[in-house]
Amino acid sequence: MTAEVDVAPRTLFQKVWDRHVVVAETTDTPAVLYVDLHLVHEVTSPQAFTVLRERGLKLRRPERTLATVDHSVPTDANSWSAGLGDMDPAARHQVRMLGDNCGRSGVRLFGVNSRRRGIVHVIGPEQGATQPGMTIVCGDSHTTTHGAFGALAFGIGTTEVGHVLATQCILQRRPKTFLVELAGRRPPGVTAKDVILAVIGKVGVGGGTGHVMEFRGAAVTAMSMDERMTLCNMAIEAGARAGMVAPDDTTFEYLAGRPMAPAGEAWDRAVADWRGLASDPGARYDKRVTVDVSALEPQITWGTDPGMVMPIGGIIPEPAGAGHRKALEYMGLRAGTPIAGRPIDVVFIGSCTNSRLSDLREAAAVLRGRRVARGVRALVVPGSQETRLLAEAEGLDAVFIEAGAEWHQSGCSLCIAMNGDRAGAGQYVVSTSNRNFEGRQGQGARTLLASPATAAASAVAGAVADPRTLDDRERRIA
Amino acid sequence: MIEPFSMLRSRTAVLPVENVDTDQIIPARFLTTTQRSGLGRHLFADWRRDAENQPRTDFVLNHPATAGAKILVAGHNFGCGSSREHAPWALLDYGFRVVISTGIADIFRSNALRNGLLAIELDGDSHAWLLANPGAELGIDLRSCELQLPTGEAVSFEVEPFARHCMLHGVDPLGWLISREADIARFEEARACRA
Fold first, then answer.
1. What is the pTM assigned to this prediction?
2. Which among B178, B45, B151, B193 has a CA at the least distance from the CA of A162?
3. Fold assignment, A176-246+279-295
4. Residue A294: which residues within 8 A CB-CB, separation 6 or more?
5. How far apart are CA B141 and CA B146, in angstroms?
6. 10-69 of B, contacting A, C-beta below 8 A
7. What are the domain boundaries of chain A?
8. What is the spatial distance between Cα A41 and Cα A71, in angstroms, rounded to a whole number?
9. Does the model's ipTM exceed the 0.95 cut?
10. Among positive and negative, which fits the CA dihedral A228, A231, A236, A241?
11. pLDDT (tens digit per residue) in A17-61
């Protein structure tokens, strides 16, 4: 192993970047950056495979690509018991095409019937494919999720998916660095989702553009891997190229023994290497912000981008400009009124932001012994089939079903509403996903982003509700 | 293969909205396609048409004055959100060749330039002039990286040099990457030795 001798202290990002430079950046040309892991799904890959085929190009390193189906696959129990007969023909064609493309090119695919299938950003970590120090790309903006492991992970377009398939490399200008210091200790009932929503509210949806965010500080160290993934997942919602957390014992404990993680001596060598990835003392960042989480309340969005966010006990703010007025009009909300108590129609617990086992536990802890309010549809969609099995092994499915919620197969589902799960025009959805854009969950649907605990509490109340103040006397004793 | 771009004259269509996300540019329900073509008809689908599929007369692309415009001027942070390349595909298929804003989201910008859609970031003053003068006839010269206003004033802009080179000469970045094969192989060998 060569010693990495460098005088200037380097950031975590810089260390990972430096290890992957195949050809250095010049004024005229971007860097050629090597990609360790390429994740592929059915929606953004078909056109890339087609280009390769048309040009007679082969995949350079098919073993560095991992594929699954998540965006357009139905999650609904009825759809599955009917053998997916109701699946949209175009979506079915897309899924079949991914199977053909992977089969032809020797790419490992966790397909529709695989027990290891799930949302691409859930299965990468779950299978141990995501590892510290890696470069990871995927034709999906929430690839930032994998940065929780100290990987440099970012979303790319379909043309670049083709570049990576053909050359295992990508053309990149080096982004700037942005240190997000999360100080203090989270109060009880305040989740990683609340923290990242507050960060986005502070820096704005374009505040991270051109930068890689590194999350650091006492509040980050205290977070589990699931929580760090929630944090990094939404770095893109601040416009950041990527989000990263330095790997530590929490990271290594999570990865140890996972199917695709190194084992034996290779594991020991890997951990020794990963310990050196953290930013050096005195490393410089292009931008910094500090957020003290110790006084944070649960957060919820009131508008049509994730930066339009407020404490759940607060009053909907007066619009600052035309964008806010347009958002309030779309949302059918009035400035100066409380958001808590606002009646809702749908609750969605799922997505690459909040569909891991700890998220399901958080929602189940609220729903246990309670009922989803009459007239509210609550969907619980685990992030992967393995997560689903783990949840069932500890009886979480029964908690959801007894509460009157729907327990689904895994997939992206109502986060992107392209698999048949969607909300109706004008409906209010309290959602644990990542985007409250107009029409994201169905044409005319109105999304309020929040944590799994807030979503579950709102399902019970039939209205936006603070999970910390639900009345325990309502619980039926099991 | 992208169409080379050097010089263009066109009127602008002005969409004075900030943080236009790619879900608005093309909603997810149109992403089940396996083609790149034909997406122009879904461009801004839910802003162009209402729930009954009738044109919304207040939306700028439904104004006859914007017909044929090849330049879209939009508010800050254009193209944020999803990485879907269907967004620049839809804009190009509709007829746009240039998008101008004070800020363009990273993934969208990269996707746009790879497809020959010139994404330009301008300073606040020039941008404000464009917003205030919808339909202005602009000249855009990628060789000199200058935008000519109808007032005779020229505003310079920056484009990432490699993307500019590729757009000017119709160079395919994939071909260029493949030409670095020897470097890639050397990198892989060096790593294998270290492991």
1. 0.97
2. B178
3. Aconitase; Domain 2 (3.40.1060)
4. A183, A184, A185, A186, A187
5. 5
6. 16-19, 21, 23-24, 27-29, 31-36, 46, 51
7. 12-173+248-271, 176-246+279-295, 299-474
8. 8
9. yes
10. negative
11. 999 999 999 999 999 999 999 999 999 999 999 999 999 999 999
